[in-house]
Structure formats: structure tokens, C-alpha cells
Design brief:
Blueprint lengths: L7 H25 L6 H28 L11 H32 L4 E2 L2 E2 L8 H36 L3 H7 L5
């Protein structure tokens, strides 16, 4: 059996982002499903964590470029390896698209994003119709991200509980490759 291990920075970034993304999905559902007194705080939290996730993703991409992930075990058929690669490309694409869409949506709505006291530049023109379209796209892509996460989790559990090929163990333990 091949041992599949990931670098410690890759593991830490994976699990930190996983927790923050799941929190973001639930915060997003809560803020759009409520007009209560907590909505404003949820929106502010959602914006801040979204910007944090964008920064963490850029760091994660830098780590991944510097230290590529280990190869999947040879026992996994080539078509499944291609599917796994495509699933990761989708996850990374959604992790990039969602905060950028959120930023563009806020820009189109005329709502400035503030990061550590700095007002970030608008990345889209202020336009009500554009705001509505971006808001809809942001919501639909969030659902797609949630579905992708569920598939990712199912695949990880399949590797850990059924195949027992070390793929899940390598990410859970965060061992540094030798």
C-alpha cells in the first residue's frame, strides 16, 4: 500500500479553510434567511471571513505550487485519478470565485469592503442589475460548493473506510513527507 502524506502547512491550511468554509456556508444561509437583529452582524462576519478565506486560498496556492501534493496510490484507476483532479480543480475554482463574486457584488451594490480599516477598491461598477445577478450567482455557487464538499467528504471516507489506501490518513495526520 502506498502511503499518501501531505505537508504540515498543506494540512493546516486544508483543515482551517474547511472549518471556515463550512462556517461561511451556514452564516450565509442564516443571514439571507433572517431579517432579525443578528443579520447585520452575520453579514459583517461573512464579509470578513470571506476576505480571510481569499487570503488563505492565495497562501494555500503558494504552498501547493511550492510543494505539490503526493501522487495518488497506483491502485486507483486512471479515470478515478482524473476525476479526483477535476474535483480538486472545481473546489479551488469555487474557493476563488466565491469571495471574488462577493467582493464584486458588494462593489456593484455600492457597499465598500473594509479590511483592517482599509477600504478596498471596487472591482465592479456600481449597478443594481449587476448586483442582483452577482448575488444570484454567489448563492448558486455556494450551493455548488456545498455539494462539492459533500462529494469530497464522501470520497475521503471511501478512501479511509473502504479502500484503506492511506489517502485520508495522510491528510488527517499531517505528516511531513520524507
Amino acid at each position: 500500500m502506498n502511503r499518501v502524506t501531505y505537508s504540515l502547512p498543506a494540512c493546516l491550511l486544508h483543515w482551517l479553510m474547511a472549518l471556515l468554509i463550512l462556517a461561511m456556508l451556514f452564516i450565509g444561509v442564516g443571514m439571507v434567511g433572517s431579517l432579525g437583529p443578528w443579520q447585520h452582524r452575520l453579514v459583517s462576519l461573512h464579509k470578513g471571513v470571506g476576505l480571510l478565506l481569499l487570503g488563505l486560498l492565495l497562501l494555500r496556492l503558494a504552498v501547493r505550487l511550492r510543494q505539490s501534493p503526493p501522487a495518488l496510490p497506483a491502485s486507483i484507476p486512471a479515470w478515478q485519478q482524473r476525476l479526483a483532479h477535476a474535483a480538486h480543480v472545481l473546489l479551488y475554482g469555487l474557493m476563488l470565485a466565491l469571495p471574488l463574486l462577493g467582493w464584486a457584488m458588494q462593489s456593484a451594490g455600492g457597499y465598500p469592503l473594509v479590511l483592517l480599516g482599509w477600504v478596498l477598491p471596487a472591482i465592479a461598477p456600481q449597478d443594481v442589475d449587476l448586483y442582483a445577478g452577482l448575488r444570484s450567482a454567489h448563492g448558486w455557487l455556494a450551493y455548488l460548493l456545498f455539494a462539492s464538499i459533500l462529494l469530497h467528504l464522501a470520497a475521503a471516507l471511501f478512501h479511509g473506510l473502504i479502500r484503506r489506501d492511506g489517502v485520508l490518513a495522510g491528510m488527517l495526520r499531517g505528516r511531513v513527507r520524507s
